Amino acid sequence: MSKSLLLGFVVGVVVFAIAGVGASQLQDKNVELKKANEKQYRTELVDATPVQLGALTEKQRLHSQLFNGSGMPGESKTISDWIAEYRGQRIVLVRTLLGRTFLASGRQPTAEEYFGRLAKDSDAIIRGRVTNKVSQITEDDSFLFTDYDVTVLEVLRNNSPNPLSIGTTLTITCLGGKIVVDEVILKAGGNGDASLPVNAQNILLFVKFTPETGAYRLTQPNAAFELTGTSVRPLAGLLPLPSDIFKDETSFVKTVKASIN
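^ thats the sequence. predicted structure below, dont judge the formating
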């Protein structure tokens, strides 16, 4: 065998070996990616509401009307169309509303002034805990909403036409949620709207009464706060308040109660 022929043979083997290693690495990456996607899917599935398209209870239909038209401007696909496109693929889809943050040009309100105005617009203010949630598609098929079951632990301001008491379970309806249809998980929400936590933490809510169903909705999108036991976490949006107000739960609740009175 000539030297040139031998050299060509060796180079060919090396190139083949490199190609084989590259294909193997690519296959390994695909396997790892599939495992990661499946892990994410199983994690998200835990608290996704199984939904039958078009099946709304009368109460859900009325709550849905509060949020019709919430889909992103210019979004051409309905929620149902989007799900149909990925049916059976065990995938997680996300639809997000991006809110705007407006900077105050004048003096920012004090915490007492801010919560005082919020309290004035509210029918009730409660401290409670979420025990369950059910998400659904809005009647116009553009977005999701969620009905939360909230057990009342303390009434800071009562709803005079329909008085609340400790231990009562309320329905609080909010924009956004998570559903699963035909193995497609769909999450919808926004950076300016609250998603209530279903955990052992307490929450403080400023709410307005919905007489058609006896339920409540947030007075404004950022009228919900998680009480961690030590600090406070606003559940949506940015507030025109110094961050110090959220560092101590006891001080925060005391300020809110003082604002109400």
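The radius of gyration is 26 Å.
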